[in-house]
Amino acid sequence: MGDGYVLAVDFGGTKAGLAAFDATGTVLASERLPIHAERGAEQAVARTIEAARSLVGDVGGRALLGSGVASPGIVLRDRVLLAPNVPGWSRLRLQDTFEEALGVPVMCATDVKAAALAEARWGRLHGIHTGLHLNLGTGIALGVVVDGAVLTGAHGAAGEIGYNLPVAGGRAGGHAPLEERVGGGAIGARGRAFGGGGDAASVFALARSVPGARAFLAETLDELAVHVANAAILVDPARITVGGGMVESADVVLPALESVLDRAVPFPPEVLPARFAQNGPLVGAAALAWDAVPAS
C-alpha cells in the first residue's frame, strides 16, 4: 500500500476537482475542469472520467488502489437525491460509473459530509468526540461527527439545514427555504439592493463601509446563527468547524455565530475555521477512497 495511491474527485457547482493522494496525504497530481452545467450531467461526468484517466497516467509507476467521489445531493448507488441544478444529475450512478471506468473500488458521499470526514480524519475535528462541520458556500449544510464517523441519517440527509423552515407553518415544497434566505447565493442576490455585484463576497466587502449592507448582513448572519445554535443544542458539539466560501470573511462570520451560540447554547462549542476550509470535499473524497481500499 505504501507505493499505491488513491484518486479523489469533487464535483462542485461549476467545477470538478481531481487529485491523486498517497498514503501520507501528499498530492501527487491534480486537475480542475469546468462542469458546464447547462450541457447536462452526462458530459460533465464523461469529461471528468477522461481527466481522471489522464491523471492516473500522469502519476505512473504506482498502483491506483481506490477512488472517492464527493457530489452535491444525496448520493445513492442508483441515483442522486436532492440533486443540484444540473440536468440529469439525479439519474447518475456515480459509483458504478467510476468503478467501471477506473477498475478500482469507489465510495461516494455528499460533498459536505465528505468535508466533515476530512476534518474528522485529518483536520480540526480529529480527536473531537462530538463536533459539527458547517459549510457556508452558495448553499449551507452541516456535517455531524460523532467519534470520528459522519452521521448520514436514515435517508442520507442528516445535517441538511438548508431545508430548515424559517417560520412556523412554512413548507419546503421541494426548495431549501433557509438556504434561499441565508446561503451565499441568497446573500449575493439579495445584496444587489445595496450595490452588491451578485455574489456574497461583494456584499461582505460593501458591509465594511455601507451601513445598509452592514445591517442586512448582520441580520442575515444572525438568522443563520439561530439555526446553527439550534443544531448545537440538539447535538451538543465540543467544536464547530466552518468551511466554504464565506470563511474568507471569517472575521465577520465567526463572531456572528459565536455571539448567538454563547447566549443560546447551554454548553457553547468552540468555533474555528476548518483546516480544509476551501478543499474539504476533495480531501474528504481522498479519505473515502482510502476507506474503499481492501484490507491487506
UniProtKB/TrEMBL annotation:
InterPro entries: ATPase_NBD, ROK. Pfam families: ROK. CDD domains: ASKHA_ATPase_ROK. It comes from the Bacteria. Belongs to the ROK (NagC/XylR) family. This is ROK family protein.
